[in-house]
From TrEMBL:
GO terms for molecular function: S-adenosylmethionine-dependent methyltransferase activity. It comes from the Bacteria. The keyword Transferase applies. This is Methyltransferase domain-containing protein. Transmembrane segments: none annotated. It comes from Myxococcus fulvus. GO terms for biological process: methylation. Residues 42-136 form the Methyltransferase type domain. CDD domains: AdoMet_MTases.
Length: 260
């Protein structure tokens, strides 16, 4: 089993099946005064660009960065399909190579835990103009007793019992108070947080694709094991969760920080 998580190997399933943050997330950012047309924004760890496209749809001038060329290629295609214009850079969140004090907004969606967090927070502070905002957000599926998430995670653990530390399941409740320390130590103040729950619908096919695109499956397992997992997952869904559409509970968590 590979010891390094490589989401580039999952870019096809990732772009097709991972829904990304719901519209309610961007609506909430707009209501909080964080998101508005005309902002200069950097989306770090952009992946296939789900957050970046949301920012662009709200009128931001967006630069999307990621370390994976495969992910950025998928992001370019999805942006083109949506008739959205943005800049793409292959760069890490800790060292983007972008100019200092040049942006109004930095976002990190579904990726902060993969970074050298203190270094990424310092880089965000460097990128932002005074008064600029940093948004760190996560969208977690929720394991509840007897639900499809619980069954799916048990299957993932059976196929991948000893994954790299960062690939393990999160805190379980979808809240990340430790991130407040990251940004406070970097010099951000004041801070705000919000969270809310949402049901995201998946078909059997799209839930299987979403799970293949996770860190515990195609990003770490050899291709033959991914195929075996997917076949077992298909059987599990057919036998235990036969409804055509699965309403998967998720929790959105966001930390909003301001550069003084």
């Amino acid at each position: 089993m590979p010891s390094v998580v490589d989401f580039g190997r999952t870019s096809s399933d990732y772009s097709k099946h991972r829904q990304g943050f719901p519209d309610a997330f961007f609506t909430r950012l707009a209501r909080e005064g964080v998101l508005r047309s005309g902002l200069r924004a950097v989306d770090v760890g952009s992946g296939t660009g789900t957050v970046a496209r949301g920012l662009a749809r709200h009128g931001c001038a967006v630069t999307a960065t990621d370390i994976s060329a495969n992910m950025l290629s998928a992001a370019r295609q999805l942006a083109s399909d949506a008739a959205l214009s943005m800049d793409f850079r292959e760069a890490s969140a800790e060292s983007t190579g972008l100019p200092a004090n040049a942006f109004d907004l930095v976002t990190a969606g579904q990726c902060w835990h993969w970074f050298d967090r203190p270094a990424a927070a310092r880089e965000a502070l460097r990128l932002l103009a005074p008064g600029g905002r940093l948004v760190i957000a996560h969208l977690d599926w929720l394991q509840l007793p007897g639900n499809v998430v619980e069954a799916t995670e048990a299957l993932m653990s059976a196929f991948n019992p000893d994954p790299p530390d960062h690939a393990r399941f999160g805190c379980g409740v979808g809240l990340y108070p430790q991130w407040l320390r990251d940004v406070t130590d970097a010099g951000f103040t004041p801070l705000e947080t919000f969270s809310f729950d949402v049901l995201l619908p998946y078909t059997h096919e799209s839930w299987r694709g979403r799970c293949r695109a996770s860190a515990l499956v195609a990003a770490t397992l050899p291709p033959a094991d991914v195929e075996r997992f997917d076949a077992a997952h298909a059987r599990l869904l057919s036998e235990r969760f036969p409804h055509d559409v699965l309403d998967i509970p998720h929790r959105v968590f966001a930390l909003l920080a301001t550069r003084p």
